[in-house]
Each structure stands twice: as structure tokens, then as C-alpha cells.
Amino acid sequence: MIKAPSKLPKLVVFDLDYTLWPFWVDTHVSPPFRKVNGNVVDMRNSKIKFYPDTPKVLQTLSDLKIPIGVASRTSEIEGANQLIELFGWEKYFFQKEIYPGCKIAHFEKIKKKTGLEYEEMLFFDDDSRNLKDLARLNIPCVHVIKGLKLREFIQHVYRSAQLENDVVLEKKCFDPRVNV
Question: What's this model's pTM, rounded to 2 decimal places?
């Protein structure tokens, strides 16, 4: 178990495509999905995989009792939900906002449903356009490069805790290429 900083985010939210798994669910794979011999496959029987550290990150948050959410703009809503279920991740996700549109709408709904302030959340996404949009809401964000990695995730949770009172927006969007 990882020793947690004294102040943790009250909710960690992840994008799906190229953050938790290495593809766009609406274009690179072919729903519907199913399990065959313990593997998740699409309709063409191609094996569907997630980034190797994704389960470790989700379990770490669960161990720390930090609620987890999803905010995805995919148009393949049913396929995304199928994959979450088939990968066994349904148990982790407290809040899911999966539908096309600007991530601001996703986070407005998350805020309304959870009662949390934006500053109490931490968001991970591969698309810098989403992070730029969310900076206006003062949501601490992490730009994910080449998939979610446990080491970088832990560094950014700690960094988020250290910057909790920082109101400078530019410092609240973290880049994993920068040493933290």
C-alpha cells in the first residue's frame, strides 16, 4: 500500500481513450465486445487490451478510498460501458459521464451529482484541448502521454496535494514530462 499525502483529491476522474486504454473505442475497435477464454475481444475476435498500469492505478485509488469517475467524449457509449464491465472496472467507478460533447458539460454534471468543488477533483486526460477547456473551471488536470502509468499517477496525486492552495491555473495542469 502506498503512503498517502495528508490532503488527497476527493475525486479522481479519468478519460478513457488513450488514457486507460490504447485506442479510440468509437473508431479503432469493433463493438460489441465479449469475453472468450478470459480475454476481452471485439466482434472481429481481436484481443482488446488496456494500458498495463490501469488496474494498479484503479486499485490504488480504491485502497486509498478515493472515489473514481470517468469523463469521456466518445460516441460509442455502449461499447465504452461494455469494456468497463468486461475489464472488471465497474466496481471502481463511482461516477460515469460518457457521451459526446465538451468535457465542461461532463464536469458540470459531476459537480452537481457529487456536491464537490472543481478544485477538489483531479482529472487525467490525453487530449490537451480538454485540459485547456477545463482550466477555466480551475480543475487540476494531468496531461497523460502514452497511457496512464502508476509512477506518474502517484507523483501527480502528491503534487496535487502540495499545490492544493495554489490558485495559479497554469500550475494546475501537470505535464508528466516535467519532474515532479
Answer: 0.86
